[in-house]
Amino acid sequence: MNLAEALRKHHKVVTNYIKNDAPDVIGKYAVSHAQKSFEDEGYTDSQLEPWKEVKRRNIKGDSRNQTRPILSDTGYLKKSIRYQKTGQLIQIGTDAVYAKIHNEGGTITLPARSETFKRERHTSGKKKGKFSGGTTSGQGFTFKESKITIPQRQFIGKSKQLEQQIKDKIIKDLKRITKK
User: Is the pTM of this model over 0.90?
Assistant: First the structure.
């Protein structure tokens, strides 16, 4: 096989890889990279930035009093990270409505509201003074507008480490397929 034939052969193989396989490699590496941030409790990059600490809840049924990792109450946010391929464009994201506020940080404003609430107390017997189940007609409570500040806990974004991992993988794959 002469040089022109070898170049043509490799050109087809390389073009096929870049059009069909490379987008999936990029997407899978990006999803894995984002999910690793949940395990590390910080944005996974060359310089790991730990997430701001939060009051943690114990894991139900755990006798060792282990606590849940940050942003892992149900695990939905981590599991919901996906990539989408549109032609040669790769987008990574999640359908969790609260993902953006955690990834970027910010302030949530809760509007003023009124609620009706009443709990009956037992008036006699062993349970005297304790709350009884259910509510009846209630008393009104008014809550003022409040703001909650959510610290940034980035898990998706630009990453030099991710870019290098993707480059290394694609170069390795290209070397492998051009040796055939």
Answer: no
